[in-house]
Amino acid sequence: MVFRAEPVKVQILETGTSTNPPTRPRTKAGGFTLVELLVVVVLIAILGSLVVLSVNVDQESRELEASAQQVRQHLQNAFQEAILSGYPVGLLVEDNSLVFLLVGEQGWEVQLENETLPVVTINPRWQMSMQTELLPSSSDVSNMGGKIVPEALIYAEGYTDPFSILLAAANENIAYRIATDGSRLFTIEMLEK
Asked: What are residue 158's phi and psi, to 5 degrees?
């Protein structure tokens, strides 16, 4: 089977134009110029980097908050240990670690084998410090005459020295404060610098 194309008849009008539909005048080809495309790519890259930075800050904040929750839980455990044992538990922040101290034969001692009161070390990117109104700072008392001295105490009678522990991200404007006014309640507060 063979198909044949019929010839197209074109009528010429008196004005000298054909009856075919009018065509648009030829202009430059459609699409975007290279400069326009580059501007769009640069804008997308800038917005993408802002999103990535925002996600990283949020991730850092979540990790820091989780560490603050962990420190708070260990403080609650120390509170329970003081009540159950009938002896106070000392607190000392040293080298980005929260150290729990118990009274021993030589005075205050770190009980490394005590699973209830382990040394709590935070991420090295962060900083931990303790503030208390009752005792001088740890640099003054933590190692007086070779003896360890706590910065704050959790008493067996069910109260504590008022203190706060600050966890701060070194490169970010994020910090969390775990604090007590002397009651058994430890609160966590987010601080923005």
From this structure: 100, 25
Q: What whole-number distance in Å separates Cα of residue 140 and Cα of residue 118?
A: 24
* Residue 32 neighbours by CB distance under 10 Å: 10
Taking a C-beta distance cutoff of 8 angstroms, is the pair 57, 172 a contact? yes
Spatial CB neighbours of 152, under 8 Å, sequence gap ≥ 6 = 90, 91, 130, 132, 134, 135, 160, 161, 163
Residue 46 identity (one-letter amino acid): I
Nearest to 64 by CA among 154, 164, 171: 171
3-class SS at 88? coil
What structural domains does the chain harbor?
Answer: 52-192 (3.55.40.10)
The rounded distance, in Å, linking the Cα atoms of 32 and 38 is 10
- Kindly report, residue by residue over 146-170, the tens digit of the pLDDT: 678 899 999 999 899 999 999 998 7
Q: Could you tell me which residues come within 8 angstroms of residue 117 by beta carbon, excluding any fewer than 6 positions away?
A: 74, 77, 78, 81, 89, 100, 102, 111
Q: What is the pTM of this model?
A: 0.66
> In this predicted model, what pLDDT tens digit does every residue of 18-72 receive, in sequence order?
556 666 665 666 788 988 888 999 998 888 887 776 666 678 888 889 999 999 9
